[in-house]
Write a structure and sequence with these properties.
alpha/beta; Rossmann fold; 3 domains; Calcium-transporting ATPase, cytoplasmic domain N; six-stranded antiparallel beta sheet
């Protein structure tokens, strides 16, 4: 009898080894990360892969994320006696040291090299624009907010236009504005429809651009909400508000952006997603997920791989506990032999590992 109980204890010991769980669960997530990377999506950790299946709200930046980020100057509208050519030349000189997509488009529209000797002082103001001294004159170039920079609003037109407006002021006098067009990404609308079909319930745009331009893009793509004229901290506040509004505590809020100013909100969101090609280094560093090919369809791939990976991991957990539980009962009853216990340990571990590799094949 003593030997019989020792034998049963050995059977218990072999069956209770957690190899199947310890090997297959991490392997499943590693496989999921590998499958996602083959589809152009870089997850920086298994925890983000696991969390991505619970994304129910996706918040987007506008420029370079929902739109192509390639601006084109369509109109130059001068005011207060400034010639059209001078307005464009001053805007180009002020923007010559900026890396913003709008700055590149203004320089391209100007079409001539800028003499750095003309620029006496330069300051880039986040979410506003730039302030520079050009030929001894103070020049402000940026969105509507830069015209309120010193507390006094410069008199200017209310530009209710479906495009991005860049205002120009010289020595406290409004000189005019440039109208730029930025088309939505061709895959954006289809991506949002596929994400909605996959269970994402809410799409929100947060942008520092003017409301008229933001609403035009939101209408074209079918977004649920749009909030414009925001500072970087305003975006963080909005994301935290959206996180507080969720009804299901498991639901996640993801933010998708590409700019330097998006780094704080990428870090604040449950899951931060950066555009890998057009995105700034700061945005990529702060993000949890990176779309390496700069295509929004990567969001659909991320959701699909995350859900497939989690399903396979749960299958492995159920397989390991189910088989081991059965053989533990058989071992306690004295029915299971040591060879069967070895199968319940090593055999189940092998089956679980093979099942975990499915995510690589299916991904």
């Amino acid at each position: 009898a003593y030997a019989d109980w020792v034998y049963r204890a050995l059977v218990f010991l072999v069956i209770s080894c957690p190899c199947a769980l310890v090997i297959s669960v991490p392997l499943g997530f590693f496989g999921g990360i590998g499958a996602a990377s083959r589809r152009g999506v870089l997850f920086k950790g298994a925890n983000f892969l696991e969390a991505f299946r619970w994304v129910r709200t996706i918040v987007f930046d506008k420029t370079g994320t929902l739109t192509q980020g390639v601006f084109r100057v369509t109109r130059v509208v001068p005011h207060n006696g400034f010639p059209e050519e001078e307005v464009l030349a001053l805007a180009a000189a002020a923007e010559s040291h900026s890396g913003h997509p709008i700055a590149r488009s203004v320089l391209e529209a100007y079409g001539r090299p800028v003499d750095d000797a003309r620029i006496g002082r330069y300051e880039e103001i986040p979410a506003h624009g730039v302030r520079a001294v050009i030929d001894g004159r103070e020049v402000l170039v940026g969105n509507d907010r830069i015209l309120h920079l010193d507390g006094d609003e410069l008199v200017h037109d209310t530009c209710d236009l479906e495009g991005t407006v860049v205002h120009v002021a010289v020595d406290g006098t409004y000189a005019g504005y440039l109208l730029l067009a930025d088309e939505p990404r061709p895959e954006a609308r289809e991506t949002l429809e596929r994400l909605r079909a996959a269970g994402v319930r809410r799409f929100v745009m947060l942008t520092g651009d003017e409301r008229c331009a933001a609403e035009a893009v939101a209408r074209a793509l079918g977004l649920d909400e749009v909030h414009a004229d925001l500072l970087p901290q305003d975006k963080v506040d909005w994301v935290r508000r959206l996180e507080a509004e969720r009804e299901d505590p498991r639901a996640k809020v993801a933010f998708v952006g590409d700019g330097l100013n998006d780094a704080p909100v990428l870090a604040a969101a449950d899951i931060g997603v950066a555009m890998g090609g057009l995105g700034s280094d700061a945005a990529i560093e702060a993000a949890d997920v990176v779309l390496m090919d700069d295509r929004l369809t990567g969001l659909v791939s991320a959701v699909e791989v995350a859900r497939r990976t989690n399903r396979i991991v749960r299958e492995n957990i159920a397989l390991a506990f189910g088989v081991k539980g059965l053989f533990l009962l058989l071992g306690a009853a004295g029915v299971a032999s040591l060879w069967e216990a070895v199968f319940a340990d090593v055999g189940v571990a092998v089956l679980a590992v093979l099942n975990a590799t499915r995510v690589l094949r299916e991904g």
